[in-house]
Amino acid sequence: MNPSILLSKRAQGLTSSAIREILKVTERPEVISFAGGLPSPATFPVERMREATLKVLADAPQAALQYGPTEGYTPLREWIAAHLTRKGAAVGPGQVLVVTGSQQGLDLLGKCLIDEGSKVLVETPSYLGALQSFSLFQPAFASMPSDGQGIDTDALTPELLAGGRFMYCLPNFQNPTGRRLPLQRRQALVEKAAAAGVPVVEDDPYGELSYDGETLPSLLSLNPQGGIYMGSFSKILAPGLRLGYVVAPEPLFAKLVQAKQAADLHTPSFSQRIVHETIKDGFLDAHVPTIRDLYGRQCQYMLDALERHFPAEAQWTRPEGGMFIWVTLPAGIDTGRLLAKAVEQNVAFVPGAPFFAGPPQANTLRLSFVTVPQEKIEAGIGKLGALVRAEIEALPKAA
Amino acid sequence: MNPSILLSKRAQGLTSSAIREILKVTERPEVISFAGGLPSPATFPVERMREATLKVLADAPQAALQYGPTEGYTPLREWIAAHLTRKGAAVGPGQVLVVTGSQQGLDLLGKCLIDEGSKVLVETPSYLGALQSFSLFQPAFASMPSDGQGIDTDALTPELLAGGRFMYCLPNFQNPTGRRLPLQRRQALVEKAAAAGVPVVEDDPYGELSYDGETLPSLLSLNPQGGIYMGSFSKILAPGLRLGYVVAPEPLFAKLVQAKQAADLHTPSFSQRIVHETIKDGFLDAHVPTIRDLYGRQCQYMLDALERHFPAEAQWTRPEGGMFIWVTLPAGIDTGRLLAKAVEQNVAFVPGAPFFAGPPQANTLRLSFVTVPQEKIEAGIGKLGALVRAEIEALPKAA
Q1: Does B132 contact A242 at a Cβ distance shorter than 8 Å?
Q2: Which helix (H) or strand (E) holds A165?
Q3: Residue A140 pLDDT exceeds 80
Q4: Most buried pick, A89, B26, B107, B379, via CB within 10 A?
Q5: What's the ipTM?
Q6: Domain architecture of chain B: domains with CATH
Q7: Which residues pair with A324 in a beta bridge?
Q8: Looking at CA atoms only, how far is residue B307 from chain A in angstroms?
C-alpha cells in the first residue's frame, strides 16, 4: 500500500467483480462449471501448429523473433483480406490491422472513438469484455432494445441513434445469449445506422461456428463504407496466441495504427507467423467443421438436458452456433443469489446482470457447454434445475 | 474515407510523424541506418528457443494454447520476482504483472495514473514511445532538467515536483541518450520523490546491458515502498515475443490487472511458457554476457569512428551500456533538415526533437550501433561527419 499513489478517475471507476471472486472456486475439480468462456482444448490443432512452429523457426527465425510492423505481418493481413472478401466483403490488406486478441481491438476503438460522455449504442445484453473496455473511456451507454433474435431494429428510432459515436453489435451467436441476427434485421440495421450517421462496429468471434455451416452476410458486407469489423483466431484455432484483427476505413485506420503502436508496438511476430503458416494452405476449411460438429453436439445435449430438468417457467435460447445458451428465469429470481447456492452444490454459471449496460435483468444467466463432458452436463443441469424449481416455489404468489 | 466517423479528441491529437515517413526509405538495402532501435538478431538464441518451444508443445500443449490468467503465467512471475530479489529489490510474485511488451506497461500506467491535465514528470529528453503512450491520456508534461549523466537531481525542487502524478525515469542506458544515472543521483532522486509524494516509474529495458557487467542499484531497490518498475525480455532474449513486466504496489497493482484484462485479456500463454522454459535453468547467466560483449564492441567502434570523422564542435555521450549514442551539434543546426540530406547519401539516424516533451533541442540526434556491420559504421559515420562539417561551415558566423 502506497498512500501517495493517486489513481486516475478512470482507474477509480474500475470495480473488482464479486462474481469473479465467486467463480474462482469453480477451478476446484469437483465443480461442474458452465461459467467458462473457454473454447474446447480438444479442438486445438496441436500437431499442425507444432509443424508450423518448426517451419517458422527453420525458415525465418530471426524475423519471427524480431520487432515487426505495427500493422501486422503482411502475408497474414493478405490472408485475412482474402478470407473476408471470399465471404462477401471487399476488403484490402491495407485495411487490416492485426491485434493482440480482438479484445485489444475493443480497447483501440474505445481510445479512438470515445470521449467522456460519448453516446455508445450497445445490445441488451452485450459482451461484458466490451463494456469493460469501453467503460475506461467513460462513455454514456445507450441500450438498444433486443429480443431472442438480437437487436430489435424496429426500435432503432432516429432519437435513439442520434449522436451515437458508434453502435457495437455481435450479430453471430452473441456472447452471452448465443442469438443470431436475422438477415432482414441486418439489412434494416445498416440502413438505419447509415441514415443516422452512426458507424457500425461488428464483433464477430463466433461467426465461423454455425453448427450447420450456413452463414449470413456480415454487416460489413451489407455496409462496406460504414463498417468496422473485428475477427479472431481464438475460437477457430487457439486463444492462447492472442490473435485477432480489426478492419476499418480511413481515416480511422491510421489512428488505430498509431494507438496500437502506443499500446504494444505490434502483435507478437512469432504468433503471427505460426498462425499464417498453420492456415495458409486451407487448413481451416477442414478444421473448422470439426469444431462446429463438436459444439453442435454439445449444445444439443445441453438443450435436451434443459428440457428434461428445467421447469416450464424457465426460457432459454436455442443457438444455431457458438458457445453459449442464455436462460431467463421468472422475474423475481436473482441469479447472483442462485449462483451462491449452486456453488455450494458444486455447479457454476455466470449470472446475467453484468452483461447489461443499462438496468440489469437479474433473472438471467449464461451457460457454456463446449468444455463440459456430456455426463457432467446432465448432472449439473439436473442440480441447477432443482435449484431453479425451489426458487420458483419460494417466489411470492400472485394474488 | 467515411465522413461520419467522429474521432475522439485523444485520437485527433495523434499526429503522424514526418520522421517516420522519411525513415521508411531506410528500409532500402543501400541505406546505412543508425536509426533503428532493434536489438541485433545475431543475439537471438534460436536453437535454445526451438528446444523450449518443442518442450512446451510436448508437455502442456493445451494449456499453452488456451486462455490464461490476466496476471501472467505463475512460474514466469515467480522467476521474475526471484530475479529482481537477487538484484536487491525484495519483490514477491504477487506484485508482478506480465505484459505484452513493456510498451503495454506504459499504456496501462497511463490509463491508471493520468487524468486530463495531470502533471507527469519526464526526463529531458525521454523515451519517445512513453511520451506517445502517455499523451493519449492528455497529461501536462513537466520536463526535469537533465545532463549527460541523466536527471539533474539538484534541479528537482519542491515546486517542480509538487502535484506530480508520477516521475518517469530510465536510469540505465536511456533511450535515446545511452546515459546512466549515477548512484548518488539515484539516492537523491528517490529521496526527493518520496518527500514530494511523487511515485517513481522506473523503465529498465537496458539494465542488463552494462558492457562491463557492473550494475547500479535499481530505483526500486532504493525505494521499495514507492517504486513502480518495468522490465523486458526484448533486449536480452528477443523482442518478437512481446514480453515484459510491471512491478507495482497495491492498490495500483489491482487496477493495472483490471486495465490489462480490458486491454487484451492476458499476454499470450504460448510466449510466456516458451520464455520461462528458455530461461528457467539459468540460461541468461551465460547468454546475456555475449550480448554485452557484442554491443560493447559495436559501441566502441562507433565512438572511434565519431572521433575520426566528426568535427570538434560536436559532442556525444560515451555509453557504458545499451544500444544508443546521443550526439549534440552546435546550436543552429537542425537535425531534421540534416536527416533529409543524409538520406540522399543513403545514411539515416533519428533526429532528437521528438524525444523532448518540452522545447526540443533541434541540434541533437540518436545513433544506434548494434545491428550495423563495422565497415558500414565507418562509412556511414564518415559521410555524416562530412555533412555535419558542411552544416557548421554554413552557420552564420558570430560577429
Answers
A1: no
A2: strand A164-169
A3: yes
A4: B107
A5: 0.95
A6: 9-44+285-394 (3.90.1150.10), 66-282 (3.40.640.10)
A7: A368
A8: 31
